[in-house]
Fold:
Amino acid sequence: MRKEYEVVIAGGGVYGLMIAHNLVMRGFGHVAVFEANVVGSGQSSRNSGGVRAQFGNEPTVRFMSDAISRWRRIPSELGYNILFSQDGYLFACYEDEDITKYRRARDVQNRNGIRTEWLEKEEVVARIPGINTNGLVGGNFHSMDGTLHHDAVISALYFSLRRDGVELVEHCPVRAVNSNGESIEVTAGEEQFTTQYFVNATASRVNELSSQLGLHFPVTPTRRELIATEPLRSMMKPMLVSLKYGVSIHQSLRGEYVGHTGVPEPENEDIKAGLDFLMRFSRDIIKLLPFLKYVRVVRQWAGTYDVTPDGSPVLGPTGVERYVVAAGSSGHGFMMSPAVGYWIADYIATGKVSDLLAPFLPDRFSRGALLDETLLSNSKVL
Amino acid sequence: MHFTYNGRDLQCEEGLTISEALRSCGVEMGSRSFRLRRWRDEPHPLKETPSAWVTVNGVPDVNAFRTRIADGMNVESQSRWHPLSVAGKYAGAGFYYRHFTRSEFLRRIFFNSIRKVSDYGGNALNIPEQAGIEELSFEEASTISPDKLIVGAGRSGLGALAALTGSNGVLIVDAMPRTMLEANFAMEAGLVEKYGTLDALLKDAGAQLIEETTVIGAYPGPLFCALKQERKVLFIRPNKTLLCVGSEEIKPLFRGNDLPGVVTAHTLRRFPLYYKATHSALYIEDRELLPHLRILNASAHFRTIILKEQDESYLKELQTIFPASEIITGEVQAAYGARHVETIRLSGGRRRFLRCDLLVIAGRRQPRIELPSLLGAAMRFEESYCMPVPITDTHYRCDSGVYVCGSTLSPHLDTFSSGLNAAIAMMGREHAPPPTSASAVPCIAKAPANQGVVCFCLDVTARDMQWMASNGYNTLNRMKRFSGLFMGPCQGARCFRNACEHYRNCTGLQPELTTIRPPLMPVYIGALAAGWEEYEKGV
Structure:
């Protein structure tokens, strides 16, 4: 380990690794990432790999539009096929839902370059064979949304960063930070050193270090779980979301159906799989896709969403000079990560906060400029 | 029953599944695996093997292992060949991630190809309407709250029952059907003498036996979720639990260990109709209990018995059980054959070959650590398994509060008395403490060849693991995420020990435990949904 770094990143998840990758692309030579466990062992290896631009608030739509175009370039940037297949997200609409919400969401997205279209009932059934057609009206569909393989992304970043000379230190959490105006003093493991910039990308543990500098971010962990079924013949290409039944599900390239609910579990960080989710999800998914009754669940796993009051991440500079935060992704962090990596690295390199990044600044809570995501979720987070 | 297969008229008995019926007529029917397109045709007793799919009465993707034959059925085989499959065999582990990184156009074709190649699974929309197959129906769940729960009615479970005479409120569950459990009971001479029948033992121990029930999940409480005959969910809330789950019989790593016709002894016991062989061989890798082998002998007469270690006294006893068999010493190093095993190669100064069309492997075991792990028990590394096993104190209790005994802890224990003592300890009475594994046999005598299939579900070979180890994937977790190891339907039940041993060979490091996830056996979503009301009552 060195005595001085240009940038030190706490947290080896996809945010931390993407930021490191983009810093390297901008020519930063002395970058280190410190991870308490193993790289990608938290949310980054536990999500369903969905990527969508269909959000209800403009800042996120614009940010995700940028992120999707970056995802398309990632395979050649990292030399790794991350299995990013753009087959779309379909938000199915049933008659007892508020249909105007779907139109308003489409308007927000269309205004910002995302060509979401409305599909009629027959078109929805053509894309999703076996969907429950009772009361089905149609759905919002954006064909450029898609899914990718999260483990492949983490592997790709891991090997790419090692080749580029970034210090990836695992099993070594950052214990203490202190700001002296000129730089940030960091204690990690047994070593102490200084850095020009410090990025905290530790998700729900963001306040452990931030409190040492007198900062606090409104990030709370909630538990979410997913299941995977046995592999089946490929039938469903898009990711299917139903706000009425509170479930979303897609079929992976290998043929497994991977699904989760939109209903959050009580606040906790325990990441062992629970019976409650399994029973609840089974009850709800067969209302949406009745044929899944005869399909078997093969495994179930849990992870955390680190949630903010408005369901959007806190990104960018904080009240403390040289201390940057990237956390609170509230369940859609992985899909935002290449843009998060790019724009945070952009801020560190140029000192200017870009227009895309500005709505996500941490001080928006004290300014009252919260983002509104109630259009497309039934519980503030999808 | 009369039916046709690919135009041939065939006959079979009633009550068989399609694959059993074909087997009994001497017709081979297998499927090809997803990545390597290797032939496979082996039902697994507890976990689902990705199974053979056939077209029935014109309806494709009917699961031949799970569907019963009906009179007048027209069955046709479906076996697809796809251009990508050629590449899959030569491309090695993680081949998806290493190709088409530059062209998005090629990537889109690639993804569509991967989708088409998955004739790995059936078409869920077919089941069960059109093919004239009986519909699966699910029953509502029920809750049982016994005083004592014993999971597993094998040797150690029977030992536990023997210790619990005179008590009551005991529930014992096992995944096997009643006939096999009665056969297990008949192997224990002492119990047969004292009680006569399994029912008498159960009555004396105040125990209720629920067979064909697998415990699929363990949650804080403890609350156990079990699945009966795949149709019905049971919630079990015991006061005390004793896990007599024992160990799983697995196949060792050697070239051709995935060929149809190479099976474990347990599979043969469970599916005797499947295998009618002329040159069958029994390979005993570790001293397998003789009563087990005696039962095995009833269903298959082995032409050759192969003993891995020379052992005079064991040899003599084997000769009494298998008088007509030739007994030789050696290690099976490879199995050869096109669609089915035809020849095996044994170790020795000069290479020895043996004609063989059924190779049964006994004595290699993998401890079933899933339930203690789900409950959060601390683990220690057991050298003779080359795997982590739960740590128990002198009262057979592990730190998650459940009692564990039997071959889950060590391969050298006498499982019957282990179960007996553990049950006595559970009752709070004086007992013999568990022996510590002092005489640990190192798990690898010499480095085996880099051949054979490790993960049967997702086609990960020993050579793939070697590649991963030398390319920076230096922990089992990284290998798992890159290649899909342990993520198939069996969730590592048939391969974890082999993977640990091979990992140690390749890297020299001690293998770590990868997270074990529920359900421990694939469970129908419909069965879970049918159990919602009962679950809600208990919440």
